[in-house]
Design goal:
Blueprint: H1 2-18, E1 22-26, H2 32-38, E2 47-52, H3 56-63, H4 78-92, E3 96-103, E4 117-123, E5 128-133, H5 139-159
Parallel strand pairs: 1-2, 1-3
Antiparallel strand pairs: 3-4, 4-5
Helix pairs in contact: 1-2, 1-5
Length: 160
């Protein structure tokens, strides 16, 4: 958790210096990305909101992405991560959208992804999508690595 807080401090400093805002959609990180960003004093200046989009119902209710809207997409994929990040950015009208979707473990998901698989995306003035494979089935360790990797991805774009 200490690593998460350290990365979140750097992200917070960048966002506050630029007077920019962010919204987060996460799945397998289970809220750790948002919790890390919110642990920083002054978070209300840059953090507009977030959602743990862990189920199909959560996707429909929290993200307003219907089953029809998922045609051509599958969870735990780069295109879906990009969709989530873009959806958060547009719904909140913020500078940055950040998302994560994957399989924390101890087993893989129904799409055939192994435990430790995660896709994350940043949508904003600079955008990027990536896939991470930890090769671990340690659920909580994966959740922390997923969150840290997503925050590092965002930090790279902010420092870019």
């Amino acid at each position: 958790m200490k690593e998460l807080v350290g990365i979140a401090q750097q992200v917070a400093a960048q966002l506050m210096a630029r007077k920019q805002t962010i919204a987060v959609a996460e799945s397998s990180a289970g809220g750790l990305i948002s919790a890390s960003l919110l642990a920083m004093p002054g978070a209300s200046a840059y953090y507009l909101g977030g959602a743990v989009v862990y189920t199909r119902d959560a996707r429909r209710v929290l993200m307003d992405i219907s089953d029809e809207g998922m045609k051509g997409f599958r969870s735990s994929s780069e295109p879906y991560a990009k969709l989530l990040a873009e959806q958060m950015r547009s719904r909140f009208g913020c500078d940055w959208g950040l998302s994560e979707t994957g399989a924390a473990g101890p087993t893989g998901n129904r799409y055939g992804d192994a435990a430790g698989h995660s896709c994350m995306a940043v949508a904003g003035p600079a955008s990027e999508v990536m896939t991470l494979e930890t090769d671990s089935n340690d659920r909580f360790a994966n959740m922390q690595v997923f969150a840290a990797t997503a925050l590092k991805l965002l930090l790279r774009k902010l420092e870019g």
